[in-house]
Specification:
This protein has 100 residues and is mostly helical. The protein has one domain. Helix 1 packs antiparallel against helix 4 and helix 3 packs antiparallel against helix 4. It contains 4 helices and no strands.
Length: 100
C-alpha cells in the first residue's frame, strides 16, 4: 500500500509547463510512456494505479480533441491524484481503529 502512495505522489502533472493551451506533447513523450509502463508492470493489480492511468489517458485525449485545456486537465489530474492518496491513507487507518 505504501508503494501505491509513493508511486502516485511521483506522478507529475500531465502536461507541466505547456506553452500551448492545448499542448498534449507530454502524453506522447516516450519517457513518460515508459514510466507508466514500468509502474503498471511493477503493480499490475493496483486498482488505484489503473484508475489514475485511465484518467491520464482520458485527459490526454480530451486535450488533444480541444475539449479541455492543458491547465484544466492538470488540475483535474492533481485533484484526483490527491483524492486517491487520501482514500488510500484512510483505508490504512480504518483497520487499525476497528481492531482496538
Amino acid at each position: 500500500m505504501k508503494s501505491i502512495i509513493l508511486i502516485i505522489c511521483l506522478i507529475c502533472p500531465i502536461l507541466v509547463g505547456a506553452a500551448d493551451e492545448y499542448d498534449n506533447g507530454y502524453c506522447k513523450d516516450p519517457i513518460e510512456l515508459q514510466k507508466w509502463a514500468n509502474m503498471l508492470e511493477k503493480d499490475p493489480d493496483s486498482d488505484a494505479l489503473a484508475a489514475i492511468h485511465a484518467l491520464w489517458i482520458g485527459l490526454c485525449a480530451k486535450v488533444e480533441a480541444h475539449n479541455i485545456t492543458t491547465q484544466r486537465a492538470n488540475k483535474i489530474f492533481e485533484d484526483f491524484k490527491w483524492g486517491i492518496i487520501e482514500s488510500t491513507q484512510a483505508e490504512k487507518v480504518r483497520p487499525e481503529k476497528e481492531s482496538t
